[in-house]
């Protein structure tokens, strides 16, 4: 079997699109079924630019890539708000809409016959073709695209993967930990669509025909197969999956020439891969032990860092849910470096008060003031960046990620640079990442956790401490703690108390909602009692 | 634009919409029970129709094949779609569903789509087939109503759709079976603990969904060219209607199907809208995508806390 340059270019470009899908499916857990449509959008935009507007190949490819990235932005903005199955349904409908649109508007797309691009103008290319070398220039460009995709994905991984993985496994807990869930998902889909568009643009320039059957939903499913068969979380998985597909196709064609064979083979491999457990051929990298403090040494000697607290005030906060009054004119002032306990029976509005302070519930009346700034109108994310962090009453759902990953993701609100810097590997991004890792390490040490431990092996107390570590890594100055000792045994509660006492001594402000009287007595400098209204 | 044209659009729209509604109702039914969005829902319908075509020996016959053979064909279509739907759940979707692997059952469903459609394409390689009619509607004259000409077939499709929907509604609201399904939809764990055989009931619900889709397919297929992707496209319309109904109940989904049918027919045929038939399939999809992006129904939204 000989491999032609065009086939090799095709595989390299499929890898480019699959690398993008790794970010969306593997990292973010967004089951995008529109990747084939993004490839098609890139291809058709390029083909239309070349045939109808006589654009040069570079401009046309840039237009194709940009069109796909713009579509990815739109899909991402929608997908960021949707639950996983509905992301699949939405992208599935979008993929079919694109496919049907190509057939329905032949004036623009050439319909079933597709668009044929004129032969290459470059002298060297034409010469290469006549002496049987195929298209070396486009092969080089395809290789460059695949390399660019790999570099981009590798550069983004340290920054985006922890954030997306945490958001994937428990979106609500991730959002509460200050992780920008929606923004990260939009970025994941834009990256994914951008690489798909680049692949499509170059694909159409390689084969010189925009064939509508090539960019249907079948391509989406092939790309999904490629990332799932190989192991969706890893770039090497995409490469392995591509090898499986590249081997299966010619074998199937050797059996029969029916047009039904490709979808049947694609569907069959995907079914088999999922039936075998869906973990993929390339195993996940098991977490390496990192240098730094672990629980094997005594956690009583944390590095010398201070956590300066802020002054938090609530004035005349009133919240109604319909006819039910949850809070009625509550006042609260918490000085920096003190612990203020909020106690009261179930249903007296303790959690609601924390939600008002954190910004997830809007009060009908009253103000929230942090260090003299009125932050009543600020959304939760903005308050989180000011250092107002809340831990949830329920522990986060289980996840195969490590403590180190989770706390690094928690450092997100205190980041100085954005993911674009990470993609470009600017010096600022490197420094920022170093600082975030340091903050995360200190926070883990202070909470007395083992950075290499997987989240699904943490006990109840450790999950609470994890939330604290995430908040500290994200630059918390005020901690809003919602019943942190629920379900804890005596010894666990003592451990929590020691950690909180140390944080208070180092200057952090604590607002503690708690039923356990001893914990309140041990920590609280002041107490507000709410009564059921 | 005349009143007659509007009446025609509404009646033929309601007819095609009744078919979308039956498909949407089944899609919502299994979603309410399991949270599974069965992306292969429409393809089972296609499998049922082609099996019926083969069973009646009608792959190259004229439209009217006589009542006994038509009855056989209809029974085969219903059986294949219902059993296929139940087996799809039991054998392919349930393993991933049990592991709570959403990516698993999503991948399984799309894989099933391509396996089913490829099998149909391999077994029935022609670009299009003619599906037999229940009665010789082609030979009946349109019914004149003022200046509107209403096709008898449209009235037949609409009547079958409404009767089937009413029967399905009674099945879900008036029987022990329906009561069991509602218990599962409310709380699957509590339903299992109180002694309901939830797996069997859910599989039965998948079968009901398949049968509803098959009935929809049987009544609309004679008016179109039957191809390996006919079921898929009908399924997409059903999913669009289900989403527009907020995935809330089979009853609402049926109503949304009717509305979608009228809207789609209006877009495709009313000259005042300047759009034309190219938009017949894309229009509903773009509409529902815009809806999903702009104001997703509550059930589709990521919970905030």
Question: Could you please describe the fold and organization of this structure?
Answer:
- The complex is a heterodimer of chains A (533) and B (305).
- Chain A has 20 helices and eleven strands.
- Chain A has 533 residues and is an alpha/beta fold.
- In chain A, the strands form three sheets. Chain A has a five-stranded parallel β-sheet with strand order 8-9-10-5-11, with helices on both faces. A four-stranded antiparallel β-sheet of chain A has the order 4-3-6-7, with helices on one face. In chain A, strands 1-2 form a two-stranded antiparallel ribbon.
- Chain B has 305 residues and is an all-alpha fold.
- Chain B contains eleven helices and two strands, in the order H-H-H-H-E-E-H-H-H-H-H-H-H.
- In chain B, helix 2 (41-55) packs antiparallel against helix 3 (67-98), helix 6 (176-186) packs across helix 8 and helix 9 (230-244) crosses helix 10 (250-269).
- The termini of chain B are far apart.
- The model of chain B has no long low-confidence stretch (mean pLDDT 89).
- The chains are: A alpha/beta (533), B mainly alpha (305).
Note poorly predicted spans of chain A.
Answer: 289-302
Task: Report the major sheet of chain B.
Answer: 2 strands, antiparallel
Q: What is the count of helical runs of chain B?
A: 11
Rg of chain A to the nearest angstrom? 27 Å
Largest sheet of chain A: 5 strands, parallel
Summarize the amount of helix of chain B as a percent range: over 70%
According to DSSP, the number of beta strands of chain A is: 11
Q: Which percent range fits the helix content of chain A?
A: 55-70%
Average of pLDDT of chain B: 89
Write out the strand line-up for the largest beta sheet of chain B, numbering strands in chain order.
Answer: 1-2
Strand order of the largest sheet of chain A: 8-9-10-5-11
The chain pair forming the largest interface, with residue counts per chain, is:
A-B, 55 and 49 residues
In terms of quaternary structure, what is this?
heterodimer
What's the pLDDT, averaged over the residues of chain A? 85
N-end to C-end Cα span of chain A: 80 Å
Global shape of chain B: globular
The helix/strand series of chain B, from N terminus to C terminus, equals: HHHHEEHHHHHHH
Helices of chain A, by number, come to 20
Low-pLDDT regions of chain B: none
Structural class of chain B, by secondary structure, is mainly alpha
């Amino acid at each position: 079997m000989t491999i032609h340059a065009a086939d090799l270019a095709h595989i390299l470009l499929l890898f480019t699109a699959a690398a993008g899908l790794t970010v969306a499916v593997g990292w973010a857990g967004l089951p995008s079924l529109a990747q084939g449509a993004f490839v098609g959008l890139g291809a058709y935009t390029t083909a239309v630019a070349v045939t109808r507007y006589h654009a040069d190949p570079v401009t046309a490819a840039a237009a194709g890539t940009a069109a796909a990235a713009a579509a990815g932005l739109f899909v991402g903005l929608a997908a960021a708000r949707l639950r996983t199955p509905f992301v699949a349904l939405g992208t599935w409908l979008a993929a079919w809409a694109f496919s049907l649109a190509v057939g329905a508007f032949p004036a623009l797309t050439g319909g079933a016959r597709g668009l044929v691009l004129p032969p290459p103008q470059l002298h060297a290319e034409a010469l290469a073709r006549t002496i049987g070398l195929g298209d070396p220039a486009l092969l080089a460009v395809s290789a460059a695209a695949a390399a660019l995709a790999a570099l981009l994905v590798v550069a983004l991984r340290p920054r985006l993967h922890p954030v997306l993985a945490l958001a994937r496994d428990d979106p609500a807990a991730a959002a509460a930990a200050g992780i920008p869930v929606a923004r990260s998902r939009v970025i994941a889909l834009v990256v994914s669509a951008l690489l798909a568009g680049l692949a499509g643009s170059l694909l159409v320039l390689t084969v010189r025909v925009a064939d509508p059957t090539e960019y249907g939903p079948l391509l989406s499913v092939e790309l999904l197969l490629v990332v799932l068969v190989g192991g969706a979380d890893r770039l090497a998985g995409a490469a392995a999956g591509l090898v499986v597909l590249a081997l299966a196709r010619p074998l199937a064609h050797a059996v029969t020439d029916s047009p039904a064979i490709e979808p049947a083979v694609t569907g069959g491999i995907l079914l088999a891969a999922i039936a075998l457990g869906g973990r993929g051929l390339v195993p996940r990298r098991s977490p390496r032990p990192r240098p730094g403090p672990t629980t094997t040494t005594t956690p009583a000697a944390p590095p010398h860092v201070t956590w300066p607290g802020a002054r938090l005030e609530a004035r005349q906060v009133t919240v109604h849910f319909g006819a039910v009054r949850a809070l009625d004119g509550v006042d609260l002032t918490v000085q920096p470096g003190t612990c203020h306990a909020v106690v009261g029976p179930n249903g007296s509005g303790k959690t609601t008060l924390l939600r008002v302070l954190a910004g997830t519930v809007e009060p009908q009346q009253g103000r929230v003031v942090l260090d003299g700034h009125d932050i009543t109108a600020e959304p939760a994310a903005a308050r989180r960046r000011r250092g107002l962090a809340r831990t949830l009453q329920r522990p986060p759902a289980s996840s195969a990620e490590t403590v180190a990953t989770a706390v690094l993701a928690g450092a997100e609100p205190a980041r100085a640079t954005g993911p674009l810097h990470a993609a470009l590997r600017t010096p600022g991004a490197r420094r920022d990442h170093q600082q975030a890792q340091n903050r995360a390490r200190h926070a883990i040490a202070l909470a007395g956790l083992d950075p290499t431990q997987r989240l699904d092996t943490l006990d109840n107390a450790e999950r609470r401490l994890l939330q604290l570590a995430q908040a500290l890594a994200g630059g918390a100055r005020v901690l809003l703690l919602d019943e942190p000792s629920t379900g804890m045994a005596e010894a666990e509660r003592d451990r929590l108390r020691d950690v909180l006492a140390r944080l208070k001594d180092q200057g952090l402000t604590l607002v503690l909602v708690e039923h356990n009287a001893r914990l309140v007595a041990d920590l609280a400098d002041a107490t507000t009692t709410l009564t059921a209204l | 634009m005349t009143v007659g044209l509007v009446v025609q659009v509404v009646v033929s729209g309601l007819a095609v919409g009744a078919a979308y509604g039956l498909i949407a109702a089944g899609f919502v039914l299994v979603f309410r029970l399991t949270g599974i969005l069965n992306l292969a829902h429409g393809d089972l319908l296609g499998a049922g129709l082609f099996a019926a075509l083969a069973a009646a020996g009608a792959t190259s016959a004229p439209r009217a094949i006589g009542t006994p053979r038509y009855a056989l064909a209809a029974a085969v279509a219903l059986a294949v779609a219902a059993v296929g739907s139940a087996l799809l759940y039991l054998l392919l979707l349930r393993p991933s569903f049990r592991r709570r692997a959403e990516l698993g059952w999503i991948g399984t469903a799309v894989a099933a789509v391509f396996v089913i459609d490829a099998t149909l394409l391999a077994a029935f390689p022609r670009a299009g087939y003619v599906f037999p009619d229940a009665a010789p509607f082609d030979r009946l004259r349109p019914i004149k109503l003022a200046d509107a000409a209403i096709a008898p077939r449209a009235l037949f499709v609409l009547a079958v759709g409404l009767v089937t929907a009413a029967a399905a509604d009674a099945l879900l609201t008036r029987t022990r079976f329906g009561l069991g399904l509602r218990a599962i939809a409310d709380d699957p764990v509590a339903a299992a603990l109180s002694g309901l055989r939830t797996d069997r009931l859910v599989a039965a619900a998948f079968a009901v969904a398949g049968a509803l889709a098959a009935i929809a397919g049987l009544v609309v297929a004679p008016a179109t060219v039957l191809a390996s992707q006919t079921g898929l496209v009908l399924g997409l319309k059903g999913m669009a209607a289900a989403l527009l109904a907020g995935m809330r109940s089979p009853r609402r989904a049926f109503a949304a199907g009717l509305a979608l049918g009228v809207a789609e027919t209006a877009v495709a045929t009313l000259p005042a809208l300047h759009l034309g038939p190219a938009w017949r399939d894309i229009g509903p999809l773009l509409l529902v995508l815009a809806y999903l992006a702009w104001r997703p129904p509550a059930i589709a939204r990521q919970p905030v806390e």
